[in-house]
Amino acid sequence: MAITEARPLTAPPDADMYPYSDGKIMAETGLHVDAILYALATLRNWFASHVRVQVGANMFVYYQEGDASKRLTPDLFVVRGLEALPEPSFKIWEAGRPPTFVLEVASPSTEKRDRDEKQALYASMGVEEYWRFAPKGFLQDLERERVRLVGGVLQGLGYAPLESAPDGSIRSEVLGLDIRADEQPETRHLLRFRDPETGQDLLTFGELQEARIEEAAGRREAETKLRQEAASRREAEGKLRQEAASRREAERLQREAENRLREEAASRGKAERAQREAERAERAATTAKRDAEVEVARLRAQVARLKRG
User: Fold this and answer.
1) Closest Cα partner for 208 from 52, 78, 57, 48?
2) What is the distance between the alpha carbons of residues 64 and 67, in angstroms, rounded to a whole number?
3) Is 239's pLDDT higher than 50?
C-alpha cells in the first residue's frame, strides 16, 4: 500500500513553478502508511479544537522562494500559530513560518537522508523539534542501543537530543505530549501520544468513534438493566403491597374472631350469673318453705296445747 497525493480539480496559479506532486510513492510499505496515518489522525483529532495549530502529512514544503528544487516532504508535521494549512503545498514565505514539529518515519531507502541531509535542512529552516521513528526494527544509527524513536530540539545548526523517560516515552514541548513507540506486537509499528496531565493515550477519530459506540452500547445495556431492575422492584413492591393487604385482612379477621370470642364469653358470663341467681332464689324459696312449715307445726302444737288446757 502506498500514499500518493491527490491532485485538486483546479491547479493553483503557481503549480507549474511549485509542483504539489511529483507522482512518486510517498511511503514504501504498509507499516509506514499505518504509522503516518495513525499519527496524522491522532494529532488532528487532538488539535481539532486548537484553531491555530495545523497538522499535515506528505506535503511539499518549499523553503526558498523562487527555487522549486528547495523542498522537502515531511512524513508528518505540525505548525503552531497558523489558522489554516496552505494547500496543496506549503511555502514557508507565504505561511510566514516553518513547521514547528517534523516527524520522519524511517525506511531503508530514506533513513540516511533523514538522519543527515534532512536534519540539517530542517534546522536551517528553524523547525523547533525534529523526530525520527522506525516502525520496523531500529534506527540504523542507533541499532546497537535498540532505539526506535528519537526526538531533538533545535540548538544552533542542529538538534539536541530529548531525554526519554523510564517507560521509553519522550516529552515534546511543542506538542505538549509524551510520545513513545508502541511495543504491543500487533501495533508495534505505531507511535503512541499521551496527555501528560491525564496519563491517558490519545485516540484517533476512528478509535474515539469505536469508544463512543462501545460507550453507547454500555449505556444502553446499563439502561436496560436499570429498567429491568425497576420492573423487578415494582413487581416486588406489588407483592409487598399484596402481602401487606393480606396481612391487614388476616389481622381484621383475627380481630373479628377475638371480638366474637369476647362477646361469647360475655354472654356465657351473663348466663352463668343468671343461673347462679336462679339457684340462690331456689335455695331461698326452699329455706322459706322449710321455715314456714316449721312455723305451722309450732302453731299447731300451740293450738293443741291450748285446747287441752
Assistant:
1) 48
2) 6
3) yes
Separation CA 222–CA 225 (nearest Å): 5
Closest by CA position to 93, among listed 122, 124, 54, 125: 125
Q: pLDDT tens across 94-132, in order?
A: 999 999 999 999 988 888 999 999 999 999 999 999 999
Q: What is the reported pLDDT for 27?
A: 53
Contact 195, 179 (CB under 8 A): no
Question: Which pTM value belongs to this model?
Answer: 0.65
User: What type of residue sits at position 222?
Assistant: A
What's the chain's Rg over C-alpha atoms?
A: 53
Sequence-ordered list of residues with C-beta below 8 angstroms from that of 298, at least 6 positions apart, any chain = none
- Report the distance separating Cα 116 and Cα 104, nearest Å: 12
Nearest CA among 211, 209, 175 for reference residue 194: 175
Lowest-confidence segment of 18-32, 105-119, 193-207, 218-232 by average pLDDT:
18-32
> What are 3-45's pLDDT values in tens digits?
333 334 445 556 557 777 655 655 567 888 999 999 999 999 9
Q: Which residues contact 166 (CB under 8 A, 6 or more apart)?
A: none
Helix axes 205-308, 30-46, angle to 10 degrees: 60
Which has the closest alpha carbon to 200: 178, 231, 175? 178
